[in-house]
Design goal:
By secondary structure, the chain is of the alpha/beta class. The protein has a single domain, classed as TIM Barrel (Alpha-Beta Barrel), CATH 3.20.20.70. A 7-stranded parallel beta sheet has the order 1-2-3-4-5-6-7. Strand 5, helix 6 and strand 6 form a beta-alpha-beta unit. The longest helix has 16 residues. The two termini are about 20 Å apart. The relative contact order is 0.12.
């Protein structure tokens, strides 16, 4: 397919530059790139409105085109529920039926009842980042004091579920771990939509991160997701 034939069906919108966690594998904060320190903490109205205008013009150039927006970060809940509701309202106002859907990818640790109500009102679907059971999740997804975040993430997830929002989950693949155990954990949490994210590792950095996990560290973990036992999931996607 030529570049002219490509479609932008979902746009990741990084509304917050900073994060309340310090995940060890984070490509933004832990891999040597410190340019985030020179950027604003939050996306300004000027930049956001320019983005919406660009999406509107893009959709108008392709009859019937709809583009979804995913609020991301850093950690998007750091902008506050009132701010996110405003951003969602502006997206609906500017894009109208050009807007496919609104989503938010969050670590879940700051979700409370106020956030649940705000997301319902703003019509924003939330997905929570959880890597598996506590021992797997807490090895990498830590706060700035070095404490694991699994309990807080699951608490936020359950608040979303109790609020009828049916959140999904995004899990970073953990080479060397038992993918079947991760799958069972997600099923025990009542999850029906699961996205798997490949680690941000290249051939140059593979040995530094995963030399101890054999020649195919990711394939061994992912094998379980190809088994028939996951066929009853509504959505299992591997992102790379």
């Amino acid at each position: 397919m030529t570049a002219a034939g490509l479609r932008i069906d979902n746009l990741v919108v990084k509304i917050a530059e900073l994060c309340n966690l310090g995940c060890r594998y984070c490509y933004l904060y832990e891999h040597g790139d410190t340019t985030y320190t020179d950027r604003p903490k939050f996306m300004s109205d000027k930049v956001y409105e320019a983005m919406l205008d660009s999406v509107r013009r893009y959709c108008d150039s392709r009859p019937g085109q709809q583009t979804s927006l995913t609020f991301h970060g850093g950690e998007p809940t750091l902008v506050g529920s009132e701010r996110l509701t405003y951003l969602a309202d502006r997206a609906h106002e500017v894009l109208g039926n050009r807007l496919g859907s609104l989503q938010m990818q969050t670590n879940g640790t700051l979700i409370d009842q106020g956030w649940v109500q705000a997301l319902r009102r703003a019509r924003v679907h939330a997905s929570v980042s959880i890597d598996g059971p506590p021992d797997i999740h807490d090895r990498n997804r830590i706060d700035h004091a070095g404490r694991g975040s699994h309990a807080s993430a699951v608490r936020g997830l359950k608040l979303l579920q109790d609020g009828g929002l049916r959140p999904g989950v995004l899990a970073v693949v953990s080479p060397g771990e038992d993918g079947a155990r991760v799958y069972r954990h997600f099923r025990e949490l009542g999850l029906e939509s699961i996205n798997l994210l490949l680690p941000d590792v290249t051939h140059d950095s593979r040995d530094e991160w995963y030399a101890d996990f054999g020649p195919n560290p990711v394939a061994g973990y992912l094998g379980v997701w190809c088994l028939s036992r996951v066929a009853n999931l509504a959505d299992v996607i591997v992102l790379g």
